[in-house]
């Protein structure tokens, strides 16, 4: 039986989120998969062109509707379900968007969802982390059932752009959209720094910084490195950093090329969010801190002395 995979693209209306390319990599792990990417938007042309370039994608569907101008899961879910008929697998990234959308899709299809897929063993068999990543669970879906899942972005590399673009087709979806959910407003911190979930470099701070004002030394270092800024839950709970910067089990799961943990002890919940980082650098005055057990490079000392010295050594 061949596998037909439908990937729900995440985007901001003009740019495809890199997590979608990681979903494609996951789908390509299913032998012989025929991969379609669907774009739900008010105007899907720009995003569809980007999705069509991804290696392994055989078709891009666009679902254009004024109601899709804001990515509301309650609105998008019934449209995805209306398209789901011929597909054996429906995937989306395990981001805030995907975690909101795919449970709705699974419920409307009356099937279970597989969360945080980190490896594909067969078209019906997958692995996912549990217990803050301390154990790996193998999940098998009953043969013939639709597979609805979210893909752990940190576990897959983004599929590259290919030489040829996949065909783009407009899909006509006739479905009643719910009115109980409506867009009111969006409030988000504006920054010229890279997005935390997709940045190749991240500078992250913990409770040891002591105040929101002290966090400014991390922003300065991040600017020199062209890095995003993150924070531990302890730092966020203490009010030193906004919630959207939280890294860890209850925050963002990331896999940057470089992760600098500054003043972070390394609670297991935090380590869950960074264990796929390629290189981890830890700076902490406590030489026994758990963060040093996972760090590739560690420096024991006062962060308020070390960070400014590091910044001076970085060439502009």
Query: Could you give the distance between the termini?
Result: 55 Å
Mean pLDDT: 93
SS elements, strand count: 15
Assign the structural class, choosing from mainly alpha, mainly beta, alpha/beta, alpha+beta, or little secondary structure.
alpha/beta
Q: Tell me about the largest β-sheet.
A: 7 strands, parallel
> Are there runs of 5+ residues with pLDDT below 50, and where?
none
Strand order of the largest sheet: 5-9-4-1-2-3-10
Quaternary state reads: single chain
- Radius of gyration over C-alpha positions, nearest whole angstrom: 21 Å
Q: SSE string, helix = H, strand = E?
A: EHEHEHEHEEEEEEEHEHEHEHEH
Strand content: 25-35%
Tell me the helix content. Answer: 25-40%
What does this structure look like?
The protein is α/β, with parallel strands linked by helices and 316 residues long. The protein has nine helices and 15 strands. A seven-stranded parallel sheet has the order 5-9-4-1-2-3-10, sandwiched between helices. Strand 11 (201-205), helix 5 and strand 12 form a beta-alpha-beta unit. Helix 3 (73-83) crosses helix 4 (96-108) and helix 5 packs parallel to helix 9 (303-313). The radius of gyration is 21 Å and the shape is globular. The mean pLDDT is 93.
